[in-house]
Amino acid sequence: MNGYQLTFYTEKNRRHGHRTVCEWLLQQIRELNICGATVINCAEGIGHAGAHHAAHVLKLTDQPLQIILAVTEEESQRLLDIVRAEGVHVFYVRVPVEFGLIVGDAPDNSSGHATLLSRASRQLPDPHG
User: Fold this and answer.
1) pTM
2) Which of 5, 11, 36, 37 has its CA 20 to 30 A from that of 98?
């Protein structure tokens, strides 16, 4: 499948309304029924304005975060449109990628939750027929 890797960069303490930007983005992702997002806590980084951000033992609020998704072009556009319309202050990178599912042992999906892998397997043709 062709689409985009969409990565948002923010800090743990950055807020949009009464929630953190990370929490707000994850809520939008859920509401759009986009399956699969990974949040990565980073040790340190330099923001777009040149400020140094880092996680300190006594203060984790300035810790940089990445929210990473593999999405279709339509999903990417819908999410970015919402972020723009809400005026959320966040840096992002959108890179064209190919993504899919390598068929093997099926993951234990006893929780009943849809995943990026289950979405990809629904959209990929069966290689055996």
Assistant:
1) 0.71
2) 11
